[in-house]
Amino acid sequence: MLRIADILALPGLHELRLRAGAAGLDHVVRWPYVAENEGIADWVMGGELVFVTGINHPRQEANLLQLVREAHQQRVAGMVILTGEEFIRAIPVAVVAEAERLSLPLLEQPYQLKMVVVTQAIGTALVQAQMLGRSRQHVLEQLLEGGYQSLEVLLQRARSLALPLAVPRQLALFRLAGGEQLFTDDAPLQAESRLQGYRQQLHDEIEQVVAGLGDALALICQGEHWIALLPAADAQQGRHNRQRMQALLVRANTRLAPLRLFLGLSATGHLPQHYAAGLGEARQALVVAQSFPERLGLSCFGELGVLELLSAVRDRQLLDRFVAAVLGALIHDDGRHSPVLMPTLEAWLQCNGNLALAAQRLQVHRNTLGYRLQRIETLTGRSLGDHHHRLDLTVALMIWRLSAYQPAPA
């Protein structure tokens, strides 16, 4: 990947000056774009380095401020303003201040530095970065899959590609869910365009957050999933990663509706020979993140407890039989009527048997809750006052939740 900081260091581009937005020097550049219209919001998708010349459209302070704000809103990588005697004489102070406030890298390019020189240098660097990125991704994918004959040979290749694999890692597995809803709401072409736009924005945001953690490795994109390898030598770094990832999920899910982003985190301290195992941990955590709403879309492998055992059971028939024996009557009854018994049992267990709290959570009268609990005991043949029976019900509920996100093998 090519960052703003890399562009400033390219041979022949020393006349480019960073005027504002140093906090965004790690922004990844996808391609250069020359702004020809009054605004850019309808013409960019995120990740562009936008060039503003003033040649085909007058650029007064108000318009430049508009462009900076639109660039920030559309998540472009940065903006370059060409200055000289003929068109834009100088970048207004207010524009520099606004770019700094928004952490948008703002570069100044004198007109005597020819555009063809700049775009050729950036284009060449982008091609080289893409080739290097593909090679690095291939190495990482082999490590994640465990599909290699010699670890030593693969690590030698990683060193030649300058991959920082000596850093212990925590694996993060993201999943963007709900894309099918877009195709229910919109025409196919419009829905596909929206979905690809969401994916690109999300990819860029995840990439920026991961880069901010240091020792960044490229994201691995696999359909609706992204794999990130976060630096994490110990539990303290793991907690820091969790906080940053939780904040990322909150920001992303605020604007993604009806789509939803989920995340599973592995344990910390994984070295390259353990990446495949770490990815397995992240997968288990992701299933739990999707299955239990109270986890707010994020789960860590180290927090799974008994769920680690349940999600690792490969005999689905064994799990299905247990759920059917314990909860089958409730599931059947909810299927015939409005589903109330399973949500009631789950709320009562989550509230540790506190009737008042459970009734409040369900927004029902306490007497209604009492009647439902009696019916649950009758249908299951289990007493809610017996701790062995409560354990059966709790575990069966966990399996029932997990089963929705673990399809049976073909």
TrEMBL record:
Q: Which organism is it from?
A: Corticibacter populi
Which superkingdom does the taxonomy of this entry point to?
A: Bacteria
Family, per entry: Belongs to the CdaR family.
Purine catabolism PurC-like domain residues: 6-125
Protein's name in the database: PucR family transcriptional regulator
Q: Which Gene3D superfamilies match?
A: PucR C-terminal helix-turn-helix domain
The PucR C-terminal helix-turn-helix domain extends over: 341-398
- Domain named CdaR GGDEF-like: residues: 152-286
